[in-house]
Amino acid sequence: MKFKYLFLSLLSLLVLSACSNDDDFLFSDTNVSELTRSETFSLKYPMSSFISKISLNTTDQNTVNGYLSDMQNEFGKWYLPLFVKLKSNPIAEIKRGSTGTGSDAPAAYYANQNILVFLTGADIRYNGVCEELIHAGQQRIYPGGIAQYGKKKGTPNIEFEAKLAQDLVSCINDLPFNLGEGADNSTEYVQWILELCGDGSYPSETKVLNTEVKSMGYYQMVISFGKKYAAYNYPVIMDLKPLYINYISDSI
Ligand SMILES: [Zn+2]
After folding, report:
1. CB contact at 8 A, 86 and 107
2. Where are the domains of the chain?
3. 215 alpha carbon to ligand 1 midpoint, in Å?
4. Which of 38, 144, 238, 242 is the 20 to 30 A CA-CA neighbour of 223?
5. Tens digits of per-residue pLDDT, 160-169?
């Protein structure tokens, strides 16, 4: 139930701001307050199993663990393959604070350094944790990694796929979704997502690439998404396939 509330809150409060560094992919922050969590969580893949160095205080660890529980338990069917991938090639460090680069984002996965950074404790939010872990997964799945697309051609491909991957899980679970919505396709995007997974199943890469609504398919959705956010407004690579989604689809 907490998720329905969270997603409804996201819909009503969605205020996006984003920035990007040369070598990373950043989460577009949302203006949402989160409940403080104090439970003990049962995790199949605890942080220590897929992150080598945990530089967070106990409160922050507890917050992250709550979201990991949601990802691994409530939505485990669609996220456990991500943790399998991360465990086989762990993230170097998770930490909080400024990187000193002058362009800090609320949450970021720095692909070249292989680190996950949250600016403040309040920036540790569900969609941010999902987003940056997905980017870490993309880094391990795309040949040559994703830093090659950072702040240049291909940025909208990588960012859109990360949003789409979350929207697919939301749709399958009857939750609202709009993270991947673009500048001019709100109606088509919703219809497209429903055609992809309205039957309750996670779509194959082939289905993602071949499904169209009003002549808008995957790459048209990427283009529209890129136009919506200045930080993602770089050329789209028209043959870079959604390899993370393909990995998840093949793994479940
Ligand atoms: Zn991102």
Report:
1. no
2. 15-148, 153-251
3. 26
4. 144
5. 999 999 999 9
